[in-house]
Design a protein that fits this description.
Helices cover 67% and strands 0% of the residues. With 76 residues, the chain is mostly helical. It has 2 domains: 37 residues; 28 residues.
Length: 76
């Protein structure tokens, strides 16, 4: 099999990527692309509790509060 221009381009790109810092490699990616491949559990663990709760509706917050109160009082 002959070494093609596509082979050269792929090899050159890999070499240049290896020379770049992580920040430089991520610079051209959208937030969605940056998060792709990360487990949801890892993403949630990286957030502070306040940040985790920001996206919840008032109804969800009341449900969560009730759940916590039941757990604290020993009911499940």
């Amino acid at each position: 099999m002959a070494y093609t221009f596509e082979d050269f381009r792929r090899e050159w790109t890999r070499q240049k990527l290896a020379e770049m810092t992580p920040e430089e490699r991520l610079r051209g990616l959208s937030p969605e692309e940056r998060l792709r491949g990360l487990a949801p559990e890892d993403l949630v663990r990286s957030l502070r509790l306040e940040d985790r709760l920001l996206g919840l509706s008032d109804e969800d917050l009341v449900w969560f509060k009730d759940l916590l109160e039941r757990r604290i009082s020993g009911q499940r």
